[in-house]
Amino acid sequence: MNAPLPVIAAVAAVLLLGGLIKGTIGLGLPVFVISVLGGFLEPRTVIALLLVPVVASNLWQGISTGRPRRAAARFWPLILAFGIGTYAGTRVLVSVPTHALLILLGLIVLGFSVSSWLKPQLHLAAHWETWCGPAVGAFAGVLNGVSMVNGPPLVMYLVALRLERESFIGAYGLIAVCGSVPLAASLIGLGVVRPPQLVWSAAALVPVFCGLLLGQWLRRRIDQDRFRRILLIALALLGANLLRRGLA
How confident is the model over 224-240, as pLDDT tens digits? Predict the structure, then answer.
């Protein structure tokens, strides 16, 4: 809270870019911000700062597509398992040492980058959805509780269902916001996030939503594939840096 103004400005710029990325491709806010700010801030501090923006931006994304009821009816088993997994993951977050958390975050970021870059041609038959959804939700929930990064399993699962773009973005936003509620309750209850941090987290809404709105405007006006490739290369480098810090 006593950080100098240049540091606060730099953090705000990173939050703005994270919001722009999420607005443009529908995900990537936590993984980008944690990758960048985790390079010089304590990871739990970054997670606390992101709490309110992650909940609010996912809620906005889930509602703005206009299809939350349809997504909720289809994905409720996954959402339930995702919430339970998130609750379990927060228990891991408070117990692991900082260097181990940095290594874990680095591996998650690298895994996200590689799996997104490869874009495997996945296809999941409808009759498997009932069984695979809860398993994917539980695994993604544990990642969500530990790091707020839940992209790799959820994205691969939704891609395998062959959802069209707006349905994909709406479904991911709804699932993510349903995981944000137990995440927020657990982090506050465990003391990872305290009232002063909540104030700063609420203030972080301003740059994040400025970026989010700009990203939504850009979504239909830029080459998303090129943007995505540049982003994934940057994330891979940032993930490698988190690994370096954890192993140093």
Answer: 677 777 777 877 887 88
- CA diameter of the chain: 55
pLDDT in tens, 74-132: 899 999 999 999 999 998 888 888 788 888 888 887 887 777 777 666 677 767 888 89
Report d(CA 75, CA 171) in Å as an integer. Answer: 8
pLDDT at 50 over 90: yes
CA–CA separation, 79 vs 86, rounded Å? 10
Per-residue HEC secondary structure of the chain comes to CCCCHHHHHHHHHHHHHHHHHHHHHCCCHHHHHHHHHCCCCCHHHHHHHHHHHHHHHHHHHHHHCCCHHHHHHHHHHHHHHHHHHHHHHHHHHHHCCHHHHHHHHHHHHHHHHHHHHHCCCCCCCHHHHHHHHHHHHHHHHHHHHHHCCCHHHHHHHHHHCCCCHHHHHHHHHHHHHHHHHHHHHHHHHCCCCCHHHHHHHHHCHHHHHHHHHHHHHHCCCCCHHHHHHHHHHHHHHHHHHHHHHHHC
The pLDDT assigned to 1 comes to 58
Per-position b or e across 133-164, b if 16+ CB within 10 A of its CB: bbebbbbbbbbbbbbbbbbbbbbbbbbbbebe
Domain ranges of the chain: 5-247
CA distances, 236 to each of 16, 48, 105, 177 (Å)? 20, 23, 12, 25
